[in-house]
Design goal:
By secondary structure, the chain is of the alpha/beta class. It folds into 2 domains: 148 residues, Rossmann fold, CATH 3.40.50.720; 120 residues. Helices cover 41% and strands 16% of the residues. The chain has 12 helices and 13 strands. It has a 7-stranded parallel beta sheet, sandwiched between helices. Strands 7-10 form a two-stranded parallel sheet. A two-stranded parallel ribbon has the order 8-13. Helix 4 links the parallel strand 5 and strand 6. Helix 1 packs across helix 6, helix 2 packs across helix 3 and helix 3 runs parallel beside helix 4.
Length: 319
């Protein structure tokens, strides 16, 4: 039995579908409100077992991990949470996971982190992710940490938000800094495949691995690629990151959600790359190319509707 936390998030919902295809017995821990609209068919015979609770409720968490040989920990407040949510959900959740997994004699914890994660980082997202890694590494339970580059997907909250910002502003696009930061995007299906294969990779036990796609992309090139794929060409204006952070903080007070969040800017604060052959070396397959994959779905998406949906949706509660 495999327990998955954060099963309705971007990585979680894609991973659930992959595990259902393989008919692996899975269990998910979700607050009751998240069970009202599940991203999979709960009537499917391969659908995961549902348990009500959260990672912050240690009693429910212990019930969920009991009988599981592995926990894939994906619970996160990365995109929509405030800084205090990062610390409350991610750090408190990791502490609870370490305690209940040790008590229930779980075989291994697998989690997804970020390239650049470090407890000493000056950026909140990377610092919290680094502290979570430290907690799991010292938990007394076998672990595998997969540090990934920025994830892109038909339903992601990064590439789609760049496209939405292009759609709403036909005059220009505000770019943090001069676009020299180098990113290492990886497609969601490739990350999910890596997580799935890690279940059987004994050599990955008690290790941290770093993976990305088959190419490095600067921020400026990433923006220009999205413009080229969608046909929404705009002048790109370099703006100091601290000014964009101020604009973001003001914008987030007006609307429930801001497309460009503080965590979004943390990701773009420094180079975030892994060895180009990492995915093949660790997991035995070649990941998809960035622009070729975007061409399959990005031009067909309704970016203005996505903008309205994401900007006015209530901020999620983590309980």
């Amino acid at each position: 039995m495999i327990l998955i936390t954060g099963a309705t998030g971007l990585v979680g919902r894609h991973l659930i579908r992959r595990l259902m295809q393989e008919s692996l017995p899975t269990r998910v821990l979700l607050p009751e409100r998240r069970m009202r609209r599940l991203p999979w068919d709960r009537a499917d015979p391969q659908a995961p077992e549902l348990l009500v609770g959260s990672v912050l409720d240690e009693e429910a968490f212990f019930r969920a991990v009991t009988g599981c040989h592995a926990v894939i920990h994906l619970e996160s407040a990365q995109w929509w949470g405030r800084r205090r949510d990062l610390e409350r959900v991610e750090l408190a959740g990791a502490r609870a996971l370490a305690a209940v997994a040790r008590a229930a004699r779980v075989g291994r914890i697998i989690t997804v982190s970020h390239l650049g994660a470090a407890p000493s980082s000056a950026f909140a997202l990377h610092r919290v992710k680094g502290e979570v890694e430290d907690l799991l590494r010292n938990s007394g339970v076998a672990y595998t940490v997969i540090r990934s580059g920025i994830i892109f997907a038909p339903d992601d909250a990064f590439i789609n938000h760049v496209a939405s910002m292009l759609r709403i502003n036909p005059a220009f696009f505000l770019m943090p800094g001069h676009g020299e930061v180098v990113l290492h995007p990886i497609y969601i299906d490739d990350l999910v495949e890596a997580i799935y294969r890690s279940l059987d990779r004994v050599r990955l036990v008690d290790s941290i691995v770093e993976i990305g796609g088959p190419e490095y992309v600067s921020l400026r090139d990433l923006i220009l690629t999205i413009m080229r794929v969608t046909g929404m060409r705009r002048p790109v204006i370099a703006v100091p990151p601290y000014l964009l952070r101020w604009i973001t903080s003001v914008y987030s007070r007006i609307l429930p959600r801001s497309l460009m969040t503080a965590q979004w800017l943390d990701i773009l604060a420094a180079n975030r790359t892994a060895p180009l052959g990492g995915t093949y070396d660790y997991f035995g397959f070649q990941p998809r190319r960035f622009e070729d994959t975007l061409l399959r779905y990005l031009p067909q998406r309704a970016h203005f509707m996505g903008l309205l949906r994401d900007s006015f949706r209530p901020r999620p509660r983590h309980s």
